[in-house]
Write a sequence for this structure.
């Protein structure tokens, strides 16, 4: 029999040392790492294996992957409690009477409003199987802030860098030291600077607007956003786009790392797919100890899965952990699992007759997300090399450090809806703006029912706190882009002038919008896909990811972050998973 069969045969009473729930950037690496350290691990994943699906495996297909029913989990969220504001969201999604989606503000009669579409991937590897692969270490201050909040120096940027180096296999040139033997391949995308005159023009304009000479643009567009520069938080202007992609264009991700670890046949990692974990089982002593999980085995059981059929009931199962249970279901599902297990606000648990294990008002609170906005325009002619993009950082007058990350090129990205994005033709040119470190962290995940197959209620409460400064920041970033788009050459056959589509319509340089109208547009049409902090370290977890009030239970995923890390969360979540591996191994002898 193959070695894996022996390693993966059912353990006594279905018991493993560790159970990990969810195989995304949080759960996948820690499950593989613990098995490689010699511990028996059961990794339970609700989705199936799409690692061979070309929409997933070929990075350039990521828009297909994001829309693929084989990977998609469809969530519909709110951005606020203000119904009037919600109803003005241009990409509001509705369920038509014929069962299909309608996106817009004028639905056919009888349609049911679903809300604002928020995609996730319910598949082996989690959202890193359909994401844009952008791989970005947050600002140093973001890590140092966690060290300050927790009083745990191991969170300092200096220490966190070692996890980046450990996990990566960097295939690009950098003046900073990098790892070259980790499980995550990283490459730097070609910005088109040397091959595409349009890309060169735009990068040079952005470089000049950032205070550099034109002659410096070539070096700038290859700067390493994941370098260890001493003053990296204040570096602005164009950078190279680092991505979790192999040099041949295939996606690298935790899903493949898990697969490779299982397929190696020599590690005690059992991967059980199509298993929706419904609750944690506790041994109720003085301090309850997590000893296992209950799950439903079956295809597409979660109702967010577009293939789900309520008539498929699934088969209930249980598995036990002699050491620890680690929950890594992501920012929406981890709080749902804790709530269903009796850890959360007492009143909410009581409402659904869920026995209270720990009354913790912060489970599902403090949900936060980077705000995203698009400065979209049409060039005077077709943009050459539309697939080539360049990232850039910007510091606004309200940011302590650089607070805007953007990427610019001949594409259109105006948020998410079923079938996203909208193609505005070969002249489209966008700078997609990500506002880092949002001041509002008032979002919530709450149960809609006690049925684990139902999705929870999600309200991101955009701009609830600090809206003045955050809107000012996005407005300044938009104006900054406009300032250099307006300098593009306009002679016959040139890329300019640009005609802006939003947030201020008109030919760039001769528009007439008020600051307030632009801020209103930004506030009402902002979108996001970087949700974090719904079970955060500080209130729900201690600095070693342990769920407060119980033993043997940790949360390791994007929900653990005290606040949204930097511009893109996938790399920080993988770094966090590496860090948690150390913390779990340090406690391995305790149990
Ligand atoms: C469309 C899109 C594009 C993105 N692009 C980027 C990008 O380019 N760069 C970047 O840095 N970030 C990007 N992100 C964000 C990034 O992918 C996420 O922040 C990251 O994947 C979070 O990891 P996680 O482990 O916390 O959760 P997830 O990735 O959501 O993984 C959770 C896993 O748990 C499983 N699960 C959930 N509930 C259960 C249950 N009850 N039982 C069993 N299994 C369960 C899910 O199926 C899933 O596999 C993108 C996100 C989206 C949605």
């Amino acid at each position: 029999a193959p070695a894996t069969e022996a390693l993966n045969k059912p353990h006594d009473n279905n018991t493993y040392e560790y159970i990990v729930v969810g195989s995304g950037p949080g759960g996948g690496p820690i499950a593989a790492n613990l098995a490689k350290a010699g511990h028996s691990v059961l990794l339970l994943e609700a989705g199936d294996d799409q690692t061979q699906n070309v929409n997933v495996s070929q990075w350039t297909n990521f828009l297909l992957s994001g829309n693929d029913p084989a990977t998609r989990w469809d969530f519909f969220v709110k951005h606020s409690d203000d119904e009037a504001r919600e109803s003005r969201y241009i990409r509001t999604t509705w369920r038509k009477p014929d069962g299909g989606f309608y996106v817009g503000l004028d639905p056919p009669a009888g349609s049911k409003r679903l809300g604002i579409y928020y995609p996730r991937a319910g598949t082996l590897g989690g959202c890193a199987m359909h994401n844009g692969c952008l791989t970005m270490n947050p600002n140093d201050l973001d890590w140092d802030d966690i060290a300050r909040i927790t009083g745990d120096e191991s969170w300092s940027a200096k220490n966190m860098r070692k996890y980046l180096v450990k996990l990566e296999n960097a295939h690009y040139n950098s003046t900073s030291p990098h790892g070259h033997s980790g499980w995550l391949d990283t490459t730097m995308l070609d910005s088109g600077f040397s091959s595409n005159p349009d890309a060169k023009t735009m990068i040079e304009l952005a470089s000049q607007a950032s205070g550099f000479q034109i002659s410096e643009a070539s070096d700038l567009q290859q700067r390493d956003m994941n370098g260890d520069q001493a003053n990296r938080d204040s570096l602005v202007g164009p950078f190279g786009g680092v991505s979790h992609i192999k040099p041949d264009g295939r996606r690298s991700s935790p899903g493949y790392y898990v697969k490779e670890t299982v397929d190696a046949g020599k590690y005690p990692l059992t991967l059980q797919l199509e298993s929706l974990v419904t609750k944690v089982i506790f041994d109720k002593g003085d301090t309850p100890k997590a000893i296992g999980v209950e799950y439903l085995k079956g295809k597409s059981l979660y109702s967010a899965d577009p293939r789900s059929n309520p008539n498929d009931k699934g088969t209930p199962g249980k598995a036990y952990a002699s050491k620890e249970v680690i929950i890594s279901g992501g920012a929406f599902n981890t709080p749902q699992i804790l709530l269903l297990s009796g850890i959360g606000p007492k009143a909410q648990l009581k409402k659904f007759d869920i026995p209270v294990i720990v009354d913790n008002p912060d489970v599902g609170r403090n949900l936060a997300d980077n705000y995203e906005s698009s400065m979209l325009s049409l060039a005077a002619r077709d943009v050459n090399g539309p697939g080539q993009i360049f990232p850039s950082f910007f510091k606004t007058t309200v940011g302590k450090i650089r607070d805007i990350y953007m990427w610019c090129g001949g594409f259109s990205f105006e948020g998410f809806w079923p079938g996203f994005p909208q193609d505005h033709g070969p002249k489209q040119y966008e700078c997609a703006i990500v506002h880092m470190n949002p001041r509002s962290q008032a979002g919530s995940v709450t149960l809609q029912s006690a049925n684990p197959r139902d999705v929870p209620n999600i309200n991101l409460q955009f701009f609830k706190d600090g809206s003045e400064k955050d809107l000012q920041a996005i407005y300044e970033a938009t104006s900054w882009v406009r300032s250099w788009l307006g300098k593009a050459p306009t002679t016959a056959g040139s890329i300019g002038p640009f005609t802006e589509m939003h947030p201020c319509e008109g030919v760039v340089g001769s528009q007439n919008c008020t600051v307030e109208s632009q801020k209103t547009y930004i506030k009402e049409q902002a979108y996001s896909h970087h949700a974090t902090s719904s079970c955060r370290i500080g209130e729900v977890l201690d600095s070693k990811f342990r769920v407060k009030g119980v033993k043997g239970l940790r949360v390791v995923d994007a929900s653990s972050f005290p606040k949204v890390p930097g511009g893109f969360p996938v790399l920080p979540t993988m770094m966090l998973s590496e860090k948690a591996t150390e913390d779990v191994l340090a406690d391995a002898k305790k149990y």
